[in-house]
Write a structure and sequence with these properties.
With 260 residues, this protein is mostly helical. It has 10 helices and no strands. Helix 3 packs parallel to helix 10, helix 6 packs antiparallel against helix 7 and helix 6 packs parallel to helix 8. The radius of gyration is 19 Å and the shape is globular. The protein starts with a helix and ends with a helix.
Length: 260
């Protein structure tokens, strides 16, 4: 979260207010929301509950949870591809309403989606440090690209965003393949019968956290969105430790509820 705040501070000092507002809405709101919706609740507790409730042990338990994650990966990828097709058609139909910056930044939904699922798998395995490290690597990649832009200000920022997209995609896919080579590419359905409740809860929290930027996009300017985003980053920092504690105890709670 600190790296995200540093990135925000740097961008606010080197982009104009309109550019920063476009960046913030596309990456932090649009891409994040779509990437989270595409997990269909897997990142909201489904994988953690599957880990806690299964009778499997050791590597078999890891494979079981990872194969469930693969099932959500397939569904989510199809969903995002459909969204991409709709988005591309809208851009072609109303070309004046979009620019390359917003287009490339919105496509962050693909690497964000892969990262969300990988992090959910690590959390379910009680390897929260790995999940945080994965998130940190994504933030550092973005921060490094922003740093390059600061030292090479003549470079078009849209080009920098496209480079970010390529590097983030390569990184997240590489992490997935590294895990899948050990745990398998097979997909399995979750044995839980309350996945819908996890999905609705996750989507509800998502809507509550991100409805404001969408309202600002309709009724206000990109500058207003940028200002709101800076304030939101400060709020996120303040609740980070509570979220980390919650993520670290999910699997243990599910395991204890099942067996005690």
């Amino acid at each position: 979260q600190l790296t995200a705040l540093v990135t925000t501070v740097l961008l606010t000092n080197h982009l104009n207010q309109t550019q920063f507002g476009q960046w913030a809405f596309a990456t932090i709101t649009t891409a994040t929301v779509l990437a989270t919706i595409a997990t269909f609740g897997a990142g909201g507790g489904v994988l953690s509950k599957s880990w806690g409730w299964t009778q499997k042990q050791g590597i078999e338990r890891s494979k079981y949870v990872f194969n469930i994650m693969n099932g959500y990966l397939h569904k989510g990828t199809i969903f995002l591809l459909l969204v991409g097709v709709i988005f591309a058609g809208y851009c072609l139909w109303f070309p004046s309403r979009f620019n390359n910056l917003e287009l490339y930044a919105s496509l962050f939904m693909f690497p964000y989606f892969f990262a969300n699922l990988i992090q959910a798998y690590y959390v379910s395995e009680k390897r929260v440090s790995w999940a945080n490290l994965n998130q940190l690597c994504l933030r550092l990649i973005i921060l490094a690209c922003v740093g390059y832009y600061i030292f090479e200000p003549n470079t078009d920022f849209s080009t920098i965003v496209f480079v970010m997209l390529v590097i983030l995609s390569c990184f997240t896919i590489s992490v997935y393949i590294l895990n899948a080579s050990k745990l398998g590419f097979k997909s399995t359905k979750s044995g839980n019968n309350d996945n819908l409740s996890f999905m609705v809860l996750h989507w509800g929290n998502l809507l509550f956290l991100n409805v404001s930027p969408f309202i600002l996009k309709i009724f206000c300017t990109d500058t207003d969105i940028g200002i709101y985003n800076v304030a939101s980053q400060i709020v996120v920092i303040s609740v980070f430790f509570a979220q980390a504690l919650s993520a670290n105890t999910r699997s243990l709670i599910a395991h204890g509820f099942k067996h005690h």
